[in-house]
Amino acid sequence: MVGVSSMASASAPKCNSHTSENEPVKSTSQDGVNCDLNETVPRLPGETLITDKEVIYICPFNGPIKGRVYITNYRLYLRSLETDSTLIFDVPLGVISRIEKMGGATSRGENSYGLDITCKDMRNLRFALKQEGHSRRDMFEILTRYAFPLAHSLPLFAFLNEEKFNVDGWMVYNPVEEYRRQGLPNHQWRITFINKCYELCETYPALLVVPYRASDDDLRRVAAFRSRNRIPVLSWIHPENKMVIVRCSQPLVGMSGKRNKDDEKYLDVIRETNRQLSKLTIYDARPSVNAVANKATGGGYESDDAYHNAELFFLDIHNIHVMRESLKKVKDIVYPNVEESHWLSSLESTHWLEHIKLVLTGAIQVADKVSSGKSSVLVHCSDGWDRTAQLTSLAMLMLDSFYRSIEGFEILVQKEWISFGHKFASRIGHGDKNHADADRSPIFLQFVDCVWQMSKQFPTAFEFNERFLITILDHLYSCRFGTFLLNCESAREKQKVTERTVSLWSLINSNKEKFKNPFYTKEINRVLYPVASMRHLELWVNYYIRWNPRIKQQQPNAVEQRYMELLALRDDYIKRLEELQLANSSKVSSASTSPSSPSQMMPHVQTHF
Amino acid sequence: MLGKGVVGGGGGTKTPKPSFVSYVRPEEIHTNEKEVTEKEVTLHLLPGEQLLCEASAVLKYVQEESCQRGVCGRLVCTDFKIAFLGDDEPALDNAETQFKNKIIGENDITLHCVDQIFGVFDEKKKSLFGQLKKYPEKLIIHCKDLRVFHFCLRYTKEEEVKRIVSGIIHHTQAPKLLKRLFLFSYAAAAQSIIATSPKDHTVMFDTLKDWCWELERTKGNVKYKAVSVNEGYRICERLPAYFVVPTPLPEEDVRRFQGHGIPIWCWSCHNGSALLKMSALPKEQDDVILQIHKSFLDGIYKIIHRPPYEIVKTEDLSSNFLSLQEIQTAYSKFKQLFLIDNSTEFWDTDIKWFSLLESSSWLDIIRRCLKKAIEITECLEAQNVNVLLLEENASDLCCLISSLVQVMMDAHCRTKTGFQSLIQKEWVMGGHCFLDRCNHLRQSDKEEVPVFLLFLDCVWQLVHQFPPAFEFTETYLTVLSDSLYIPIFSTFFFNSPHQKDTNMHRRQLSLPLTQPKSSPKRGFFREETDHLIKNLLGKRISKLINSSDELQDNFREFYDNWHSKPTDYHGLLLPHIEGPEIKVWAQRYLRWIPEAQILGGGRVATMSKLIEMMEEVQSLQEKIDERHHSQQRLQAEAPCLLRNSARLSSLFPFALLQRHSSKPILPTSGWKALGDEEDLAKREDEFVDLGDV
């Protein structure tokens, strides 16, 4: 939201909302961008200019605009050549999902010959080019090469990026420290290195927390019964009642309804870690029909007869394909034009908010079970890396205020998503030209949307602001940082991602002020339950419709600005008061030669803090 | 009476699940047990208020978590309100009494606030009116402020049931005489209290001076004059005693058709163009009379078309715009979405929420009003033409559109007194028939159209989009909308100033919230909430200002152009009217629905942070001032009252007492069919056969 406000107050460049950083390019120097204003294109260390071309940008809001486009190995940058418009946009190539040629040699209409670029961040870019001189062919080839480097055996830009920050974002998450913060290991739970070389489970992190009473051999036997060996491991433990959230993949029950004594025993061991007599609650994120259907391919769910001490609930959250189609429909109603007369029913027909509602509802149930001390919870879907990650991380966000701070949230993403093998590379398709890949799906975006919905309902509970969430989403696609690259920890280790790339958290943490919510009030031990009703869920306009200059949400900014003014005023008054007090006390002390010193007066002023 | 009483339990209480205790702190349980003592709750009566009938052993249902429970008590009906007095009403703690509404308690329903009454007979819900043959076992009252009450009469004595049910039906549903309004008995009984006219800067527009002042303020006095031809309502009872017309207009023209066909001034823009309104001449078949009408109007138009007057653009609001019928239909569908009987109904409608909202058309009507106001603003501001609003009586859509235009164009109308003066000028003096439109006398349901509420909702959209542009907040608007049904304030209980003047002998209490601070009885809330009502964000608004230099004849261009510039909160304000920008006024419509409450969240959370910061800054400022003025040492300042935002619900200050537990509310309804995505839904995330291991 700060970003939008700075744009609103800028001297109204017509389309400036096109900058990917959501801010005027000038200020990108703070992000570590070498931005010499005399230079034509801002450049990151390690970024090289490939080509530039004169084009006509066909702006869906303001019509055709003549400009010059610059293509580097990281970005596509456009500067208007028209005097009345200072249009600039700056799109990292990683955002591009598809490049199409429009018009052929015989095209006659004005601006009908050129390129149409589909982006992953809810917009399209359209350029008209001259037919003569192969300028379109050149641009198409260069863009294809650098936007989809994997198809051309080129490295992703993150591996070429030479940015330096004064904070190392890779140091943010240290699993041992995070588990220690949760009070682990304890008498019931131990840290195991059984997966040190990713032999037990290729897509899990090296370090896992498992019940003390389960031996490494037990774990191996359980792994054989869980899809892709993703065994139940601890995600979070309640500091007081010791209820836990455990995550895993589906059991390999299959058509024949196979059972596995070790798995059954293992779940019972988990149940018993807090000496509760109640059953273990299993939340299967899928709709029950899908869970049943999974038996046909060898999967399934925990049946009552096999797991006497567990109670299973389905959360009815749909699969990655449904979510992908839903987001596509959202784009259809918001870009380039916002559906006007039937906005509400169109929005409903996308089902996007309905999906959000179900994910939130599931997470609330998980959080409530654990927080109320009713029972420990085991969460899985099919493989335990999409819906499961959404549910555990959202429930943890509701339960543990630590994750609502900037670093806490980074740790949460790093832990539940990155280390536990959410397949970012497949879901986003970094550098991959196959735009129609069925593996792509906006699961992480959906999670961030849920977080945004929560922050909207609890505007004082999060240390970060909307811009923080949007920045994360922008760099989910940009390929500037290594944070979201590849599918799992083992692959990242092989590619030496932490050594060879920069972390997104370096950018954010070296610039924290920009991402802070001024209203943040730290409240320890407060459980946040959002209201998962359509009455309160909203489309995230500032993200999904941010390219449309007609839709501008300025209202939170104004309140925030006023609050910031007050904060500044307060600090100023405190300073003045201190000065007055100092002056005063020195007068007093010189007059009465009393020993009262300024330091004695100080606590006085600070009573409010 | 609520939440806290759970453990003591009324008749309808389900046995709480064993886990329940974990949501109640132990100390709460103990206080409860002490609280449940035989205690007769006394009925609080206003001056002049009389008890009409009552029934005991009535159970009021309280929605709690996912079950309902009953609270036992007395149901009474006075000539002012229906009230329920719970037997085991727990004492409210300090923080709670502080925010209590002083006139209408949580279980009070003014007679005018009753919308519909239902009886439940053998599980069947039936609308109740007229004489009853059979009396229901359960009474459901839907209120105009969207509260829903359920009273169980099964344990009440038969004759008491008869008395209370027929009493309530009679006093709320039967047609009434104007002089039977509680307003009058209150005024008579409370004379001594209201005698001193409070210091109030709201301009009432009941004197010539007030109109002159307004002309001067808007610099309209060059071309327009205030007239007193209608003093004592000599010419017509529809118009106020004083109003403003173009200077050259002869006074006998006003007399000619009792004020019909006369351009009446509403407001002047900084560039000299004016907003005018005119009530149409009576419909006639006779050609001769029509000819007379035509030549009369020609004469009128000649006057206002000639320089120095700008070109006039006529906006006929009777045709080509909204009809009152549309507004009525839309609102009756819309309000139904909030009159929810139970949790199941809430969640069942949740999935279809957006399409239900859309099918009511209420938001679309708001959008159309805002759009019309922008169009007129464009004419006045950019084209520099006069706009003449035309309507049959010039007292419904004219009031709505002209006041909306003024809120958008005139920053003065965005202050509290400015806004109240605007309501006084355009609605009260403008002759909006509040009595009929609110159906206060229950004389004709057909006439009941929420035009004023529609106006407030339009203003709410503006407040929501541009909070710093207003001195008041949404809470102010919500309280204002409630006061439509409180017959203590005379403002909204007459059809015209003439009717008011002939019926009221002394000046009555007018709009709420304009009372001096020294009389704690009369303000709605204490100072504490006053902060919430008065917007702290609004800086002093000084002048009307800011002309855009471009002259555009196109709405879209005008609109886009304005929105591409940074907003000047003290200048022209144009609302966003795109689909996603028109929202539901949640504070008014959702406040009584427990499922919709966000505990410790909502916008009130940021507002209370703002207020805390304001207080801190203020106290620091005082300290500095003190230091400057005297050398004396300061005592340690008591820390400002910190509101525990975790305890405030998103619907504060309205439904403060509704929920005490922090248990999450879970949707109970299932998933709606995906339609054409069904096949996708059946697919696997990944097409990998896991095989039979």
UniProtKB/TrEMBL annotation, chain A:
Domain Myotubularin phosphatase intervals: 169-544
KW Membrane (keyword) present: yes
EC number, UniProt record: 3.1.3.95
Membrane topology designation: Peripheral membrane protein
Gene Ontology terms: cellular component: filopodium; late endosome; plasma membrane; ruffle; sarcomere
A Pfam entry, by short name: GRAM
Active site annotation, chain numbering: C381
Catalytically driven reaction(s): 1,2-dioctanoyl-sn-glycero-3-phospho-(1D-myo-inositol-3,5-bisphosphate) + H2O = 1,2-dioctanoyl-sn-glycero-3-phospho-(1D-myo-inositol-5-phosphate) + phosphate; a 1,2-diacyl-sn-glycero-3-phospho-(1D-myo-inositol-3,5-bisphosphate) + H2O = a 1,2-diacyl-sn-glycero-3-phospho-(1D-myo-inositol-5-phosphate) + phosphate; a 1,2-diacyl-sn-glycero-3-phospho-(1D-myo-inositol-3-phosphate) + H2O = a 1,2-diacyl-sn-glycero-3-phospho-(1D-myo-inositol) + phosphate; 1,2-dioctanoyl-sn-glycero-3-phospho-(1-D-myo-inositol-3-phosphate) + H2O = 1,2-dioctanoyl-sn-glycero-3-phospho-(1D-myo-inositol) + phosphate
InterPro entries linked to this entry: GRAM, Myotubularin, Myotubularin-like_Pase_dom, PH-like_dom_sf, Prot-tyrosine_phosphatase-like, Tyr_Pase_AS, Tyr_Pase_cat, Tyr_Pase_dom
Coiled coil: none
Record's subcellular location: Cell membrane; Cell projection, Filopodium; Cell projection, Ruffle; Cytoplasm, Myofibril, Sarcomere
GO molecular function, one term: phosphatidylinositol-3-phosphate phosphatase activity
Domain of life: Eukaryota
Spans annotated as Disordered: 1-34, 587-609
GO terms (BP aspect): mitochondrion distribution; muscle cell cellular homeostasis; negative regulation of autophagosome assembly; phosphatidylinositol dephosphorylation
Keyword annotations: Cell membrane, Cell projection, Cytoplasm, Endosome, Hydrolase, Lipid metabolism, Membrane, Protein phosphatase
Binding partners and assembly: Heterodimer with MTMR12. Interacts with KMT2A/MLL1 (via SET domain). Interacts with DES in skeletal muscle but not in cardiac muscle. Interacts with SPEG.
Family: Belongs to the protein-tyrosine phosphatase family. Non-receptor class myotubularin subfamily.
Function: Lipid phosphatase which dephosphorylates phosphatidylinositol 3-monophosphate (PI3P) and phosphatidylinositol 3,5-bisphosphate (PI(3,5)P2). Has also been shown to dephosphorylate phosphotyrosine- and phosphoserine-containing peptides. Negatively regulates EGFR degradation through regulation of EGFR trafficking from the late endosome to the lysosome. Plays a role in vacuolar formation and morphology. Regulates desmin intermediate filament assembly and architecture. Plays a role in mitochondrial morphology and positioning. Required for skeletal muscle maintenance but not for myogenesis.
Protein name: Myotubularin
Gene designation per UniProt: MTM1
TrEMBL record, chain B:
Keywords carried by this UniProt record: Cytoplasm, Sarcoplasmic reticulum
Gene3D superfamilies (UniProt xref): Pleckstrin-homology domain (PH domain)/Phosphotyrosine-binding domain (PTB)
Any one Pfam family match given in the protein's UniProt record, by short name: Myotub-related
Main location, first listed in the record: cytoplasm
Domain Myotubularin phosphatase: 205-589
PROSITE patterns: PPASE_MYOTUBULARIN (PS51339)
One Gene Ontology term, aspect cellular component: sarcomere
Record's subcellular location: Cytoplasm, Myofibril, Sarcomere; Sarcoplasmic reticulum
Alphabetical list of InterPro entries matching this protein: MTMR12-like_C, MTMR12_PTP, Myotubularin, Myotubularin-like_Pase_dom, PH-like_dom_sf, Prot-tyrosine_phosphatase-like
Highest rank taxon of the organism: Eukaryota
GO BP terms in the entry: phosphatidylinositol dephosphorylation
Entry similarity comment: Belongs to the protein-tyrosine phosphatase family. Non-receptor class myotubularin subfamily.
Oligomeric and partner information: Heterodimer with lipid phosphatase MTM1. Heterodimer with lipid phosphatase MTMR2.
Known function: Acts as an adapter for the myotubularin-related phosphatases. Regulates phosphatase MTM1 protein stability and possibly its intracellular location. By stabilizing MTM1 protein levels, required for skeletal muscle maintenance but not for myogenesis.
PANTHER family assigned: MYOTUBULARIN-RELATED, MYOTUBULARIN-RELATED PROTEIN 12
Protein name: Myotubularin-related protein 12
Organism: Oryctolagus cuniculus
Lineage of producing organism: Eukaryota, Metazoa, Chordata, Craniata, Vertebrata
